[in-house]
Amino acid sequence: MSKKRIAIVGYGGMGAWHAKKLLISDVAEVAGIWDIDEAKREAAKEKGIFVYDSFESLIADETVDVVTIATPNEWHMPMAVAAMEAGKNVISEKPVTMSSEDLLKMIDASNRTGKLFTVHQNRRWDADFLAVKELYASGELGDIFQIESRVQGSHGIPGDWRGQKEHGGGMILDWGVHLIDQILQMVPDKKIERIWCRCDHITNYEVDDGFKLDIFFEKELTAHIEVGTSHFINLPRWYVNGTNGSAVIEDWNKPLRVVECTEWDPGNVVPVVTAAGLTKTMAPRDSSTIAEHEVELPKSDVHNFYRNVCAAIDGKETQLIKHGELQRVMKVMEAAFRSDETGLPVEIDDKIC
Fold it and tell me: Are 309 and 102 in contact (CB under 8 A)?
């Protein structure tokens, strides 16, 4: 099978990342790039990558099978639609676009032209996420009632378009789209009942530079998603609670630590001394009623995304990142913005994908 030829629109951070991966791909190759910035075009040429003279010439190239769009967010929809109408399959960087209305236009173009359209939700291949996803599915902790997912840094929003509203900046659209997608992949079978969100504006007043989002699922499961850009001591990347134990991943590459309950009622609990008195309720358990172990993070290959796209184009596989999943994530993000604006929880009409 010949390699798919992929042209990249936008040669910034992610566009260059795509090109680097495709240069060593077993299923695809770089046809070329286009960027409005001359310096970025020259940077691509220095890597030996062909540079088109316009977006129009890129999508007119009959040898191109796929167009990957890695531009600021407001350009995803019009460029994706134009590329599909020119007969190209399309990969959009995340977030897919800035509104559910625009997303429907992209999905309609895919249905109308018969071209594959998907989004690069690359963090479905993060090893920490895969470890927690596997733990959730295993039932090892009993009925899960609490999932916490956090990413925190201390550098604020990067000093580029990500800090500007007109370009779709802010942390909900930048990082939230990944963490929401991960939670919905982990919990695909539970209906969302409501959303609650608070946005931070610590270093940027135009867009959110952090947020706290709670997704309330049916059957007493709550997922807490938190992103911060002004944190100098980070909380754990993942924290999970179930009726039979707890689990934590402290940081991206740290192992999964699991503590299971082996005996619920230990009999006489030895109280712990606190500053203002004694407490049995908050006394720690001893080793006779719990079992603890660590799980190394699984191996993962993010290039499986491109392998799936190429196989899906040939009709050999179903695309992994589906239109309904994109719509569900977009619904959650839009509900998060509404909740922040009103100060109230928002109920959504959730369709499980």
Answer: no
Q: Which value, to the nearest 10 degrees, does the dihedral of the CA atoms of residues 285, 286, 289, 292 take?
A: 90
Instruction: Give the tens place of pLDDT for each residue, 148-158.
Output: 999 999 999 98
State pTM to two decimals: 0.95
Among left, alpha and beta (phi > 0; psi -120 to 50; other), residue 131 is alpha
The full set of domains in the chain, from first to last, is 4-120 (3.40.50.720), 124-301+331-347 (3.30.360.10)
Burial, 332: exposed, middle or buried (Cβ in 10 Å; 0-12, 13-18, 19+)?
Answer: buried
- Quickly count: other Cβ atoms within 10 Å of residue 218's Cβ: 11
Q: Distance between CA atoms of 167 and 218, rounded to whole angstroms?
A: 35
**C-alpha to C-alpha distance for 162 and 14, rounded to whole angstroms:** 13
Distance CA 142, CA 89 (A): 43
pLDDT in tens, 13-34: 999 999 999 999 999 999 999 9
Find all residues with CB under 8 Å of 183, minimum gap 6, and list them.
147, 149, 215, 223, 225
Q: For residue range 258-315, what is the model confidence (pLDDT) as tens digits?
A: 999 999 887 778 888 888 888 888 888 888 899 999 999 999 999 999 999 999 999 9
Phi then psi for residue 223, to 5 deg, are: -110, 125
